[in-house]
Amino acid sequence: LQEPEEKKIALELLETEQAYVNRLHLLDQIFYAELMKEAKTGKVVPEEVVKMIFSNISSIYQFHAEFFLPELQKRMEDWNRNPRIGDVIQKLAPFLKMYGEYVKNFDKAVELITAWSEKSPPFQELIADIQKRKVCANLTLQHHMLEPVQRIPRYELLLKDYVRKLPPESPDRGDAEKALEMIFMVAKHSNAAIAEMERLQNLWVVYQRLGLEDDIVDPSNELIKEGPIQKVSTRNNSTSEKYLFLFNNMLLYCVPKVIQVGAEFQVHLRMDVDGMKVRELNDTQFPHTFLVSGKQRTLELQARSEEEMNAWIK
């Protein structure tokens, strides 16, 4: 007899959950616990740093090991009499908000591991020692730490599949659909946290390339496009190499620095997007040229190709 599709998916959820709990156990009970024990001796690494690396992994581990996995196991043992998992996943969803903190902290955690591995050989040795154990399966601490970041999208995929394969009259339909919606909201929340973190990091890198000019560093800015451009000078019929950064609120017209110490660019002009007009120029001498006019001034710019010009104009 062929197992119904939805049961296969529910079993896959259970199997991956079991493997996931083992991974969380490794992170919390082995890496975190042993590093903490060493930290308490005061020689290897400060306790604060270990806590910062592992964030709230303990709460995540406890929740999955003591609540979600056992509930899922009970459901699957009872499947033939009562084929449903939607209700358990509804109980799981609100707790997944705990991941927000872990996910936001992830990049910083990886940076701390790198920094302290360089600073403290005993710290590096302890991690290397744990990584050699069979339970680590030849993977690094950083690799294991990525698992919680990837777990919520995995729930979402499995549950989507589960709902798709449920027969219309299944007693689990209503619950499973509601559970999927809840997981979707949490995933969106967690993805938004990741996206926001990436946006801020990219923004910071751009600010560094611009030499961190005070009036430009603003966390709410969004970089839309950047790239080299030629400035056309009609006075002496020539062009010169410039560089543009287009944000949601301003255009920075920059000159690449010859000597790159610190900043890569010097901001020559800052133009507000508010009130800015852009149009193509049909200039036979300088093809792919467009005009940007703002409150501050007007620039005649030449792109390297028609596509590039259109991309800027758009």
From TrEMBL:
Residues 222-314 form the PH domain. Coiled coil: none annotated. Its main location: cytoplasm. Pfam families: RhoGEF, SOS1_NGEF_PH. Transmembrane segments: none annotated. One of its GO terms (molecular function) is zinc ion binding. It is found in: Cytoplasm, Cytoskeleton. One of its GO terms (cellular component) is cytoskeleton. One of its GO terms (biological process) is filopodium assembly. Residues 5-193 form the DH domain. Keywords: Cytoplasm, Cytoskeleton, Metal-binding, Phosphoprotein, Repeat, Zinc, Zinc-finger. PROSITE patterns: DH_2, PH_DOMAIN. This is FGD2 protein. It comes from Pitta sordida. The lineage of its organism: Eukaryota, Metazoa, Chordata, Craniata, Vertebrata.
